[in-house]
Amino acid sequence: MVNLYEILQKIGFDWQVALANLVNFLIILFLLKKFAFKPIGKLIKDRQDKISEGLQKAKEADVRLAQVDAIAILRLKETDQKSAVMMSQAQERAKKLEEGLVKKAQERQRQLLAQAEDQHKKAQEESQRQILKEAGVLVKEMIVKTVELKPEAVDEALIEKAVLQLHHGKH
């Protein structure tokens, strides 16, 4: 049987070099673990913690944003309702104001119409007095011409009777 040691020597394996390499590897491993892996691991852990914290804050911000959106929508609805109420009240006030103005205008129209009717009546009465006065003069002239008397001799009572008959004949 061939010895394992001999086979390893034939392929160029040396136990002393291998042992030295193993010791070197363990020293390098210890140094890397102490001075490189721990700080790098700590940096990676800190970075992961910051990322986790950022993700948590982002989730909280999303929740807060959703709450703010809900509040904003609620406020918009309240504002819409308030503005609808205000519009309704403004329309009611405008309608009442319009009704009041229409009533005032109608009352003013009635007053103006009554004044116009009074003025018309007065003008008619004045016209009738003027016509009666002129009719009295005309009747007097006609009587004078008919009777061929002097105007002073014509009876005033007769003239008034003729004018009254003329006036009642019109009505």
UniProtKB/TrEMBL annotation:
<dbReference type="InterPro" id="IPR002146">
    <property type="entry name" value="ATP_synth_b/b'su_bac/chlpt"/>
</dbReference>
<keyword id="KW-0812">Transmembrane</keyword>
<keyword id="KW-0175">Coiled coil</keyword>
<keyword id="KW-0138">CF(0)</keyword>
<keyword id="KW-1133">Transmembrane helix</keyword>
<dbReference type="GO" id="GO:0046961">
    <property type="term" value="F:proton-transporting ATPase activity, rotational mechanism"/>
</dbReference>
<keyword id="KW-0406">Ion transport</keyword>
<feature type="transmembrane region" description="Helical">
    <location>
        <begin position="15"/>
        <end position="32"/>
    </location>
</feature>
<protein>
    <recommendedName>
        <fullName>ATP synthase subunit b</fullName>
    </recommendedName>
</protein>
<keyword id="KW-0066">ATP synthesis</keyword>
<dbReference type="GO" id="GO:0012505">
    <property type="term" value="C:endomembrane system"/>
</dbReference>
<dbReference type="Pfam" id="PF00430">
    <property type="entry name" value="ATP-synt_B"/>
</dbReference>
<keyword id="KW-1003">Cell membrane</keyword>
<keyword id="KW-0813">Transport</keyword>
<dbReference type="GO" id="GO:0046933">
    <property type="term" value="F:proton-transporting ATP synthase activity, rotational mechanism"/>
</dbReference>
<dbReference type="GO" id="GO:0005886">
    <property type="term" value="C:plasma membrane"/>
</dbReference>
<keyword id="KW-0472">Membrane</keyword>
<comment type="similarity">
    <text>Belongs to the ATPase B chain family.</text>
</comment>
<keyword id="KW-0375">Hydrogen ion transport</keyword>
<comment type="function">
    <text>F(1)F(0) ATP synthase produces ATP from ADP in the presence of a proton or sodium gradient. F-type ATPases consist of two structural domains, F(1) containing the extramembraneous catalytic core and F(0) containing the membrane proton channel, linked together by a central stalk and a peripheral stalk. During catalysis, ATP synthesis in the catalytic domain of F(1) is coupled via a rotary mechanism of the central stalk subunits to proton translocation.</text>
</comment>
<comment type="subunit">
    <text>F-type ATPases have 2 components, F(1) - the catalytic core - and F(0) - the membrane proton channel. F(1) has five subunits: alpha(3), beta(3), gamma(1), delta(1), epsilon(1). F(0) has three main subunits: a(1), b(2) and c(10-14). The alpha and beta chains form an alternating ring which encloses part of the gamma chain. F(1) is attached to F(0) by a central stalk formed by the gamma and epsilon chains, while a peripheral stalk is formed by the delta and b chains.</text>
</comment>
<dbReference type="InterPro" id="IPR050059">
    <property type="entry name" value="ATP_synthase_B_chain"/>
</dbReference>
<dbReference type="GO" id="GO:0045259">
    <property type="term" value="C:proton-transporting ATP synthase complex"/>
</dbReference>
<comment type="function">
    <text>Component of the F(0) channel, it forms part of the peripheral stalk, linking F(1) to F(0).</text>
</comment>
<feature type="coiled-coil region">
    <location>
        <begin position="87"/>
        <end position="133"/>
    </location>
</feature>
